[in-house]
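Late entry, evening session. Most of the bench is empty. Finally got around to the prediction I had been postponing all week. Sequence below, unchanged from the version circulated by S.P.
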Amino acid sequence: LVAEGRGEEARSVLDNLPPEERDAAPARGVRASIEFSEQALSTEEIAALGDRTDSEAQYQRALRQVADGQYDAGLEALLALMKQDRAYNDDAARKTLLQVFDALGADHPLTVTYRRKLFALLY
């Protein structure tokens, strides 16, 4: 449903799950995907950014990648933005990385890999 742009329907399905399933990792991941999809520019709007390389354009591209389930590319882009402009939008890249980690779950291979990269970047 999320991939089809039907986030409200997906949210409704999640809200009707039993409480123990509603808070499980898969449901958290779907809920995060809904939020990322709502925050990200549409595919057409991303295309309209063209070759812009400013922080806003980079952030929006990364957010769209995450919303589309291209987590590896999105996480890499968020790390690159942190290296280039850590303060952008009140540390939005770092905060988004943490949201993706939470959505994927602590044991997900991408979470483990990119948490390590984030730690190396910060320290």
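Two things to note before I forget:
The helical segments are 7-15, 19-22, 25-39, 43-48, 55-67, 71-84, 92-104, 109-122.
Residues 25-39 form the longest helix (15 residues).
Will write this up properly tomorrow.
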